[in-house]
Design brief:
Distance between the termini: 26 Å
Protein name: UDP-glucose 4-epimerase
Shape: globular
Number of strands: 14
CATH topology of the largest domain: Rossmann fold
Strand order of the largest sheet: 3-2-1-4-5-6-11
Radius of gyration: 20 Å
Order of helices and strands: EHEEHEHHEHEEHEEEHEEHEEHHH
CATH superfamily of the largest domain: NAD(P)-binding Rossmann-like Domain
Helix content: 40-55%
Cofactor: NAD(+)
Number of helices: 11
EC number: 5.1.3.2
Pathway: Carbohydrate metabolism; galactose metabolism
Keywords: Carbohydrate metabolism, Isomerase, NAD
Length: 357
């Protein structure tokens, strides 16, 4: 029986590549569509790569027709909150105009099922926690605004053209593949966990905590951290829902538990046995104080569970991948090898638990 083919737009990126692996494990053939501007060619391992831009509707349609894709998952776009504050044009061009072209290409090729990678940034700074999907969407930065605009487009395309879509609003994606094949790799890197780990490895020399005066227990921002493997599994569940002919919907993806930046850094130091510099900078524009998910709807309607999103497991898998991807500078070879072996034991145990579930 031939595997159903899924067009994974932005499949050479961090979450996209993890999802391609999850799709392959679930019996699908992921077809990555990516212009490789921020993605990585060597992350494309579970199906073919089509190099193309989402702003080229004709190329999108050709990819769907050539590979016989029955649905698409849309990860492509720009995703830096701070950058969106100083260069909003880039975010409306890439995320909004690009998504419109993508939708037109899918429609031209007769592909009417789409899972969309959205964000908790659409909520802005809600007054109540945890955040459920009924909370008003009032983004406070152009990144969140651009994602909200795409959500509106999906609803309109559904009403006018019959597009069936699932919107997944992520909280903080983090961690690395349990087998160590993939990890978080960006240039520049802005996320707290990989920045901290790269600082410990000697690759970043300007590490700082952005803001210590938030209205939170320790003054640092509080976030809901979800393992990228759990996120990837959620995309498979959402896709399967659409392929069964069920209705789409909007779902938060998080754990329901928030950790402050200081708490995260404490676990990083505990896992690695290394000390981070204590540098505090000002808040970044557009950063809310607290973002924590209520993911009850995803659990009840998608069957979604977070199996790997304990903060320590997130950091252990990320550290293992970072040691393999770029070992610590100026560390004795034997010390790095010992760290990798220790991390391999942790990862092997995690893979064993996943296989037995």
């Amino acid at each position: 029986m031939t595997a159903e083919r899924i067009l994974v737009v932005g499949g050479a990126g961090y979450i996209g590549a993890h999802t391609c692996k999850a799709l392959a494990l679930a019996g699908f053939l992921p077809v990555t569509y990516d212009n490789l501007s921020t993605g990585h060619r060597d992350f494309v391992r579970w199906g073919p790569l089509v190099e193309g831009d989402i702003r080229d509707a004709a190329a999108v349609a050709a990819a769907v027709r050539t590979h016989g894709a029955v649905a698409a998952i849309h990860f492509a776009g720009s995703a830096y909150v701070g950058e969106s504050m100083v260069n909003p044009a880039k975010y409306y061009e890439n995320n909004v105009v690009g998504s419109l072209s993508l939708l037109n290409g899918l429609r031209a090729a007769g592909c009417d099922k789409l899972v969309f990678s959205s964000t908790c940034a659409v909520y802005g700074q809600p007054e109540h926690m945890p955040i459920d999907e009924s909370v008003p969407t009032v983004p406070v930065n152009p990144y969140g605004q651009s994602k909200r605009m795409v959500e509106h487009m999906l609803a309109d395309f559904g009403m006018a053209y019959g597009l069936k879509s699932v919107v997944l609003r992520y909280f903080n994606a983090c961690g690395a593949d349990l087998a160590g094949e993939l990890g978080e790799l960006r240039d520049p890197e802005t996320h707290i966990i990989p920045r901290a780990l790269m600082t410990l490895q000697g690759y970043i020399d300007d590490f700082a905590v952005f803001g210590s005066d938030f209205p939170t227990p320790d003054g640092t921002a509080v976030r809901d951290y979800i393992h990228v493997v759990d996120l990837a599994d959620a995309h498979v569940l959402a896709l399967q829902r659409l392929l069964r002919g069920e209705t789409g919907g909007t779902f938060n993806l998080g754990t329901g538990e928030g950790y402050s930046i200081r708490q995260v850094l404490g676990v990083i130091e505990d896992v690695t046995g290394l000390r981070l510099p204590e540098v505090v900078g000002g808040r970044r524009a557009g950063d809310p104080a607290i973002l924590v998910a209520n993911a009850t709807r995803a659990r009840d309607e998608l069957g979604f569970e977070t199996r790997h999103s304990g903060l320590r497991q997130i950091i252990e898998t990320a550290w293992r991948w970072h040691l393999r991807a770029h070992p610590r500078r100026n560390a004795p070879v034997g010390a790095v090898a010992a760290e990798v072996v220790a991390a391999d034991v942790v990862a092997a145990d995690a893979v064993g638990r996943r296989a037995s579930r």
